[in-house]
User: Fold this.
Amino acid sequence: MDLLNNLFVNLYDWLAGALHALAAGLNLVKDAENAIVAAVMSLVVIVVLLLWLVLMVLVLIWLERKNAARIQDRVGPNRVGPFGLLQPVADTIKMFIKEDIVPTNADRLVHTLAPIVVAAPAVLAFAVIPWGKGMFPVDLNIGVLWVVAVGSIGTIGIFMAGYGSNNKYSLLGGMRAVAQMVSYEVPQVLTIVAIVLMTGSLSLNKIVDAQSGWGGMQWYIFAFPVGPIAFIVYYLSALAEVNRTPFDIPEGESEIVAGHHTEYSGMKWGLFYVGEYFNFFLVCTIAVTLFFGGWQGPLLPPYVWFLIKVYALILLGMWIRMTWPRFRVDQLMGFAWKTLVPIALVNIILAALATPILKAIGLI
Amino acid sequence: MDLIVFYLFATLAVIAALGVVALRNPVHAALCLAVVFISLAALYVLLSAPFVAAAQVMIYAGAILILFVFVIMLLSPGVDQGAGALKWQRPLAAVFGLALAVELILVLASAVLPAARGQYTPERLAQIGDVQAIGALLFTDFLLPFEITSLLLLVAMVGVIVLAKKRVRS
Amino acid sequence: MPIDYLPILVMVVVVIAFAAIALTFSALTGPRRPNPSKLSPYESGMPPFGSARRRISIKYYLTAVLFILFDIEIIFFYPWAVLFRQLQLFGLIEMAVFVIVLLVGYVYIWKKGGFDWD
Assistant:
């Protein structure tokens, strides 16, 4: 059991040890040896993380299509591989063999860079997530803010896509997307303050550790009433932040074709698509870390707990997407500024007042 | 190691800053400005101030830059043709630019810039964390500036409504 | 402490390289048979008219300024939340004064229709 719980940590230690043994053969100074091993290990961790994320996105795409099909009483992808499991792989290959079209008079450089600027920050934000006990690529003591700051760079990428395509739909969609993302960033970031207040730290590891009571079940979502309110505000604004239905006005196909990715094709479009799923996966992992105790949980290995919780939230998001119609653009902005922001603000004050009480009765 | 990273990002910042000034297309200039902001954030990290770096990216690259591009798109997103420049501007700019350059060189050549060394050294910051250090100062010694900030933000709020929402009233 | 961020720097390089390689590879593997109508911007099947770089509404400017103001407000919340345990009641009062001043602005914007999209 212990072996299983610490599987990946042990693997990491074993690999680092092996590298040390290898490096020792080179007869280097101790400092140089340590630096080399640390550099190689961080490279290994990052490449593994990247491959893992790509795998997760493939799973998510399959899951979303299958789920949508089930809810709409269809079968969904079922031709490529068992249960259509290889469908996303086939899609990826298709994207590689599609023609790469840049419209006339487009701003070529901006148009090409935009998908990178959208997809790259989404991956970078995953660097601080604790995936399991002792399983974090880096532990930054500004963890939460790192995620927020990196996430705000993606907004620039959306604008670049809208501006660079020389298409009216792209420009409209890009502008709407940016306006929506910045509006919903306010309640999203504001609501996290309540959790930071209860923990007294910005490090995601410390936030997870703070939820370790009750045999790993003392999650902030149970810290009534602050936790549940914070979670609902976070989840709704996060769905808007990643432009998912019911908040997908920026790419509302009935009005503006496909918004900022109207003029994209091939792998450039693929990067936008993947970037969207990275972001969706990211907000679910953050929500689990902040409100559902991260990897904390009884019996099962920590990383399994983490994935179970993340996928529960992902399925919730997919369910919401399939169930609700799209907001109108005027309702959308009002919802952020007039509903979510006041709730988040009141919740912070509530958290400040309630923290001593919650502590006294043992809820946090 | 720190030095290599410093020169990397400092060079990037300077090149991007030149781009901001030199590029004809205002949107390109704004995107260069984003690179400047992010490079500066990296320099803040090197100074053991990750909180300041995060705030820099969040507020400058995330918010102020978005405002800039919105204003560019609001005015005219076309390429600046150079029309409307006054005849005497260029020679005058050259003279002032030269004067500023000479001044800078003189100052930089004459002295190592002295900076006060406070109680928050990098070692101490690593120990207590820069968020805690900033918070402790902000909410005790610099309480008045902090509260005045809220008044400034209030003025800005009124200002933007007056600018953007005037037509609704009439 | 800056050394903690070294893996991040490595990660930035790896991620950008990964995305750039994916784009380059796709440009090489895909066909390239351009023609004028394929390259023309999509406008629901009509020939595109006028420039696509149009001026946008002032609503966006308003949204961006409001976002900056609230972002600055939020960035002050974070150190306060971290330090709340030490500051205790004093901290609560400090922040209450800050928030009340901003609430005046918030209500003003609301009443003037600043949060309405039209």
Notes: The mean pLDDT of chain B is 83.
